[in-house]
Amino acid sequence: MHIPKSHKNGLFSKITTLFATFLVIGVVSYAGYLYISDQDSNYSNQLATIFRQIAVKSAESAREAKRKQPVYITLPDAKTIRAIVEDYSKDSSTWALVSKTHAISVDYIPTDLKIPNVATRTDKSDAERSVRAIIEKPLVNLFSAASSAGYQLMIGSGYRSAALQKVYFDSLAASVGAVAANQAIAMPGQSEHQTGLAVDISTVARNCYLDNCFGQTSDGLWLANNAHKFGFTLRYPSGKESITGYQYESWHFRYVGVDLATALHESDLTLDEAWPYLVKADATLKQNGAI
Questions:
Q1: Is 0.85 surpassed by the pTM of this model?
Q2: Contact 97, 272 (CB under 8 A)
Q3: How many domains does the chain have?
């Protein structure tokens, strides 16, 4: 069959055009596939990033919730109290145990010492009349309540440096011997007075001053029965000498806060006896990341 040349040229042109069209469609389709694939990849990456961010935030929220989770302490025969968020092993902690077996650094000096706005023994140095600022208000409230009840209290001794504690210890040891002296006076680094949280309390009239007869006076009895309401505990009570390591001191009070002081009063425990409970709480606070 003879096909005219002009028809041949037209047919070739149509075939070429058709091929080109299919080629363009193929290229465009492939490009579209690549674009969609790329978009899918980007979308997947974005989703992965979002999920990672959510996971990180969720983990942070969980850690923060755990950090803020309250830790409680229940001493025998006492109401449950909430543990304060501090590292009790630090010299500056409100709940730090200071004793013959738990010494603090002889170089430790509280940074917030001040003379409280209560009666103090004015013939003592400014340093020994001082206490940590955090216990000034509790002292003011305690002394005010005592005054309302008819008792005029006075601080006989507050903060003592390790150096001053050595002077007192050496002075007594020179007359009664070191062993006997250590039943009445702490060695440097083992005295609660160095924390600025302990005070020797007497009356303005100095009745039974630094003598255990103070515990039998109306002032001393009121103090022993009410000090915990203001955050203070009688640190060396009668009958606990083998536990505290010191003789009965009816005048020595230590600030630990109302909650713990009340729990100690209710349980009839010393800070030494309560220490294992505090250590457990301290470990939980550290485990939770609170301190």
A1: no
A2: yes
A3: 2
